Amino acid sequence: MADLDTGRMEAIKNELGDSSRVLCFKCDVTKEEEVKAAMYKTKEAFGTIHVALASAGVIGWTPIISKNSVLNTKHFEKMFAINVFGSVYMAKYAAMIMRDNKPVNEEGERGLILFISSIAGEESQRGSEAYGATKAAVNGMTLPMARTLGKYNIRVATVAPGIFHTPIAKDHPAEVIQMMMKQTPMGRPGKAKEFAHFVQAIVENPYINGGHLRIDGAQ
Questions:
Q1: Full-model pTM
Q2: Could you give the CA distance from residue 84 to residue 75 in angstroms, rounded to a whole number?
Q3: What topology does CATH give the domain 27-215?
Q4: Residues annotated as part of the active site
Q5: Confidence (pLDDT) at 170
Q6: End-to-end distance of the chain based on CA atoms, in angstroms?
């Protein structure tokens, strides 16, 4: 795990139990050298990397104009630095490590790079121009990256969730959360275990490649 929140990482590590199988790195994903260091320290500890998951992200409400304000372009840039460039840095070094892997199955697969996007990448809400643009960028690089890395038998896919019970959801205004609930036929946010099962299915299925896959309760 690589994050700025070391306390949260340690809590997850303790929850998982076997600490010998978990490494935690304080890492700012906007800094390429820190991402590189985390990736190669992981390789050093475990021998290689077979699955790399880019899940760092921030959300924010950035209307191009409103009654009393205009878009803060610095905030727009920060969101791209975390949501897009952080994912690119991870993918870059994951691919460099994975291409040297021995095949892990009869299909010759060497690794999986998995991004976390959002349904906002296809249909974002008003006022979330920056967030929607960052997730659209992640969606947009998934297929060409999968085609590029295909010759190394490295898969690339993106998970695009709707509203889930996660810390990032707390950054949504309450009225937006209520609106999202009304838009979801199932009438509730997703659960962490449902998300985990979805990711596990992608990891285990060697023919899932190049797509951004929604898990949103038909939101």
A1: 0.92
A2: 14
A3: Rossmann fold (3.40.50)
A4: 131
A5: 66
A6: 30
